[in-house]
Amino acid sequence: MSNGYSSDKSFRHLISCFRTRLKMYIQVEPVLDYLTFLPADTKEKIERQVHTAGNMQAVDMLLSTLERETWPPGWTREFVEALRLSGSQLAARYVNPDLTDLPSPKSETTHDECLQLLTLLQPTLVVRLLVRDVLDECVARDLLTIEDRNRISAAENLGNESGVRELLKRIVQKDNWFSTFLMVLNQTGNGNLAQELTGTTWSENNAESENLSQNDDAEPKEPLISATNQSCSEKESWDIETNSSESSFADSLIVSESDTSLAEGSVSCLDESLGHNSNMGSDSDTMGSDSADEDEMRRASPEPELRLRSYQLEVAAPALEGKNIIICLPTGSGKTRVAVYIAKDHLDKKKKASVPGKVIVLVNKVPLVEQLFRKEFEPFLKKWYRVMGLSGDTQLKISFPNVVKTHDVIISTAQILENSLLNSENGEDVGVKLSDFSLIIIDECHHTNKEAVYNNVMRRYLKQKLKNNIRKKENKPLFPLPQILGLTASPGVGGAKKQAKAEEHILKICANLDAFTIKTVKENIGELRSQIKDPCKKFVIADVTREDPFKENLLKIMTKIQTFCQMIPASDFGTQPYEQWAIQMERKAAREGNRKDRVCAEHLRKYNEALQINDTIRMIDAYKHLEMFYNDEKQKKFAVLEDDNDGMGDDDGSKDEEDEKKPLKLDETDRFLINLFFANKKQLKSMAQNPDHENEKLMKLRNTIMEQYTRTEGTARGIIFTKTRQSAFALSQWITENEKFSEVGVKAHHLIGAGHSSEFKPMTQNEQKEVISKFRTGKINLLIATTVAEEGLDIKECNIVIRYGLVTNEIAMVQARGRARADESTYILFAPSGSGVIEREIVNDFREEMMYKAIDRVQNMKLEEYNHKILELQMQSIMEKKMKIKRMSAKHYRDNPSLITFLCKNCGVLACSGDHIHVIEKMHHVNMTQEFRKLYIVRENKTLQKKYTSDFPINGEIICKCGQAWGTMMVHKGLDLPCLKIKNFVVLFKNNSSKKQFQKWVELPITFPDLAYSEYFFDSDED
């Protein structure tokens, strides 16, 4: 191929020749992510076109833009690569400038016939295919991307039919889609649909598909031709102009009258214009991998048989009689399967009695919604009942009351139900009532206590129950109440030190769930023990004897800071009490307006965190923690300096040169602290990189991992539980970078939470699912996780579980230990001597024993005594909540936010009055006044922009003129809104001149009004 055909002109000619096919084969939104040469405003226009006119029109706009404008060198290759990376490989073959992989005319003909055939049979597929049956397999065979899967799942929330249409719309854009889709159908138990598509059996069709894939010149097989030999009316349907909204599958497949025909947009068309023969490219791509590690993920049957073991039936018995119970079974023993069985039995009985039945399954973590839906409830119940999974992460926001009306089983986060119940009570929305359900299943029900969302839901139940008791005495009709089923592996003892308190805790959980009893296995304990293997428990003591010059240097720096601000802590450096002391000093100094002490306390806290990191993981991780903090501090000061000097003089030098030349705008305290770090920076970095002083804990951890993975000969799976997200990430990095681990087959990855409470970037739900999926298939065999992996998540059984210096309570211990349920598994607690970690683990063992004794005592109570205690505790819970509401109401300055003012916690400048604060979505607090705009500057913060990927994008960080962060600049309905974080301010109460600091807005006893969007629209700086 000559260079002339690789030029921009030839590339644009390729676009014009294949425009029709490109419009069919490109999914435009993911492609835009990879086009770095395309301006942001152009991307926005194209994205708007997707939502207003549909994907095909948006692709047309993109292609027109590429043809019309002049772009930087290399843009053609970038566009082709963008198509490949975003899952539009078939489109990439058409526009590859090398013209080495063009589909042949024969393969185009086959593709078009398959497309027509699929369109004809679409109504059958929409009715008979369950999208969940094939979704995972399509992703595994690269027929769908992860983004495709998410969009299809979102569409499925509107019903299975919508999900199937979205699936079909997307698979036809992929290379070799027809043969791969047939394979998926047969592998997922949908062979009858595959046979309807081809008119052949699976074995015949498989052979034909391979022939088509391997031989471009092969004619399409007879069943395919006969299937597309339609009547005139059927052919005419292909010429009907489609609606641009893309509401149906046909929109993305059928070409409108205004387009050239498929034949005109074919390879033969290019052949004629370029003078080439028609056999320029081969079509011999393979049909997708069929690797063994995916086999175990396949569903053997779309309708598996629902059976319980004897021990499962034993604990389920009272619930099958309609009683409220708590089921306590160890991790891995099949609690959820018991719940599915009870739900089906419940709905079957309701149906037989011609009485409405509806089940809701409540979970406390978003990933559990899909897990329980996909793995448990939907496979076993889909044949008889409509099942739906719903969480706050659902991409298509649909009405919860409508979901409840149209489905028999709903798996939902508890907060969604709580919000809907509140809406119903407040008259804000239709909402739902507890009486809409006949069975409520609560997963991880030990969280039903205090102010947890489970308990808020159950308090409504208890109030209604107590009202029913009164109505019963008055011979009035009772309000219907659902049956309650709680599931837990360990209800815990609530921190009890004595047996009586442990029993009281168990009774409280039973009272909160209105349980008739708490069920554990007794008659079939032998069967349970054969199913659940207790791991071998070990303690690894890591004595610290190394020289640690890095730590010594940090201690010298901290001593200098303490001398400078004349603070004397009562705790040792590097401990949790020291961190608490630093936080208290920081808050006290902020309230008193003592900037010197506040800033010093903040910096001491960062050094203390570095000491803790150095003690747990690598010196270099501790160094990076400090370096990131001080670089951020320096950048804030430069941002303030640049704002002050805005418009003064020309910028000639590079940014680095400017950093050196411009003096920082610092007071005495800032100057001392920043200079102190940067004066020691080079020495600290050198020490941190010295391998002679490696952390002895890491050396022992390395030996432990190596021993376990060598002993199990490639079959090992393990989890290391650690305290913080940062330590999880750092340990994962350390293992990945160390070749010795890979030599024994260790493939590690971190698994951390999805919340935004930590400064460290969270994982998204999709990232979590991907990691767990790879762990299940063996592509990853060692997880380094925070407590997110302790309970609930469907993580494959492990040979080794290590708690790396992390001990919380007896519930977490039981949950973590329950992960080590493979044969001959090991549970290891890693701790330094004298840390108290091992002692706390021994206490947890004692509490676990107390818990089982307490459960046994509660189970053997006389029924009259048990009922009396339960009723007493229920009334106590309701009264405590009423008193708390009264106390909160008395504290609230509900009608007068102007009674408070906000001061910058760093410099004490007056930021704003409380009556300038408005609220968006009942959680984001913003100040839109012109006066406030003059007090802050906005700086770019890429870490924040990556961290917050919610419904409210972040455009930057807002900081005070002193350099103190105040919050973020978020985007809402096209407006930039300064969103304040209350922890960055001191709150002054005007009525008594008191000053307080709060970590969360909910702690502040003030109710702020909602933002009136129209009021501020004309105040915005935008045109």
Describe what this molecule looks like in 3D.
By secondary structure, the protein is α/β, with parallel strands linked by helices. Helices cover 51% and strands 11% of the residues. It contains 44 helices and 23 strands. The strands form five sheets. A seven-stranded parallel sheet has the order 3-4-2-5-6-1-7, with helices on both faces. Helix 32 packs antiparallel against helix 34 (668-688). The longest helix is centred in the C-terminal third of the chain and has 29 residues, at 863-891. It is globular, with a radius of gyration of 32 Å. The two termini are 50 Å apart. Residues 1-6, 201-302 and 647-663 have low confidence and may be disordered.
Note the main attributes of this structure.
7-stranded parallel beta sheet; 6-stranded parallel beta sheet; about 50% helix; alpha/beta; about 1000 residues; single chain
Widest sheet: strand order?
3-4-2-5-6-1-7
Specify the number of helices.
44
| Helix content, binned percent | 40-55%
Which regions contain 5 or more consecutive residues with pLDDT less than 50? 1-6, 201-302, 647-663
Task: Write a compact overview of the structure shown.
With 1023 residues, this protein is of the alpha/beta class. It is built from 44 helices and 23 strands.
List the helices and strands and how they pair.
Layout: H1 8-17, H2 19-25, H3 28-34, H4 40-53, H5 55-68, H6 75-85, H7 89-95, H8 105-120, H9 122-128, H10 131-140, H11 146-156, H12 160-171, H13 177-187, H14 191-198, H15 202-214, H16 222-227, H17 232-236, H18 250-253, H19 267-274, H20 292-295, H21 310-320, E1 325-328, H22 335-352, E2 359-363, H23 366-381, E3 387-390, H24 400-406, E4 409-413, H25 414-426, E5 439-442, H26 453-473, E6 483-488, H27 499-512, E7 517-519, H28 525-531, E8 536-541, H29 549-565, H30 576-592, H31 595-616, H32 619-644, H33 655-661, H34 668-688, H35 696-711, E9 718-721, H36 725-737, H37 739-743, E10 748-751, H38 765-777, E11 782-785, E12 800-804, H39 810-817, E13 826-831, H40 837-859, H41 863-891, E14 900-904, E15 910-913, E16 917-920, E17 924-927, H42 930-933, E18 936-939, H43 942-947, E19 954-960, E20 965-972, E21 975-980, E22 985-989, E23 994-996, H44 1013-1017
Parallel strand pairs: 1-6, 1-7, 2-4, 2-5, 3-4, 5-6, 8-13, 9-11, 9-12, 10-11, 12-13
Antiparallel strand pairs: 14-15, 14-22, 16-17, 18-19, 19-20, 20-21, 22-23
Helix pairs in contact: 2-5, 3-6, 4-5, 6-7, 9-12, 10-11, 11-12, 13-14, 13-15, 21-22, 22-23, 25-26, 26-41, 27-40, 27-41, 29-31, 29-34, 30-31, 31-32, 32-34, 39-40
